[in-house]
Amino acid sequence: MKKNLFLTIMILLGSVATSVQAQSGLRFLHDAPITKFNKADTDLLIKTLNQTLDTGADGTPVTWENRSSGSGGHITPLKDPQGRSNCRKVRVENRHQTLSNTTEAVFCKVDGKWKVISK
Prior knowledge:
Blueprint: H1 3-13, H2 19-23, H3 39-55, E1 62-66, E2 71-79, E3 87-96, E4 99-110, E5 113-118
Antiparallel strand pairs: 1-2, 2-3, 3-4, 4-5
């Protein structure tokens, strides 16, 4: 898996493991919606994330949904807190059936691709 895609997935999980969590076998991820996503869910989420970062209006949520799996969510683009023109903050709300989580991250466009800068 490409490094940036892995980082993106970890951000979308809602957290990156600390050493204590890592030592606990990452059990905290057991109920994260994205751990239940199939390939179609993940592909749809990443496609929607990229489109939203490219063209979404600040503060307007963009919905993604895979009815066949029960997965979906909203991605809300926001202004970059540091005012960089090539960066955006996003709020990502994911769900899989009854599981849900929300997280925020800052992405910047580098060499034509969105990359996670911070959570």
